[in-house]
Design a protein that fits this description.
Blueprint lengths: L8 H11 L13 E6 L16 E3 L11 E10 L7 E3 L13 E6 L2 E6 L5 E3 L6 E10 L3
Antiparallel strand pairs: 1-2, 1-3, 3-8, 4-7, 5-6, 5-8
Length: 142
């Protein structure tokens, strides 16, 4: 059986058109996260507490050990001119030793979605431009 794949300019143009609304065009770095360990998985994150005195987490670092329940908090500013905005939160990757963090994601105290090693991009549908508070409530895994 002979299979031939012809990637003509027209086919490539159509593929690019299909994904064009789902690519990162601009990025703004988040402020450093603040970290607080929770004693129990049933503890709800305190969404009203000021996190300024929590431990600061540097980007790209390992901020907790295995089987740790946590709250992470930061702020971000959503630019008015952005269309289809999203947060990119790489919480580990398959193959590294810190690959299981998973969390419930809150924006301004309201649940927006979840993030884990397989779901790093969270659409900000319905979020108005301007400053917002981001809280992650989760578990680091084993």
């Amino acid at each position: 059986m002979d299979h031939q794949f012809r990637f003509t300019a027209e086919k490539i143009r159509k593929r690019i058109e299909l994904v064009s609304d789902h690519r990162f065009r601009e990025a703004v770095a988040l402020e450093p996260f603040r970290y607080r360990e929770l004693a129990e998985p049933t503890f709800e994150p305190d969404l009203a507490t000021n996190a300024n005195d929590w431990e600061e987490v540097s980007p790209g670092t390992y901020w907790a050990g295995a089987d740790t329940h946590f709250t992470l908090r930061t702020r971000f500013d959503l630019p008015r001119e952005w269309t289809n905005p999203a947060l990119h939160l790489p919480l580990g990757s398959l193959g590294d030793i810190f690959n299981h963090p998973e969390s419930l994601l809150y924006v301004d105290g309201k649940i927006l979605g979840s993030a884990d090693r397989h779901h790093h991009t969270i659409a900000l549908d319905g979020i108005d431009p301007g400053p917002h508070e981001l809280t992650l409530h989760g578990w680091t895994g084993l």
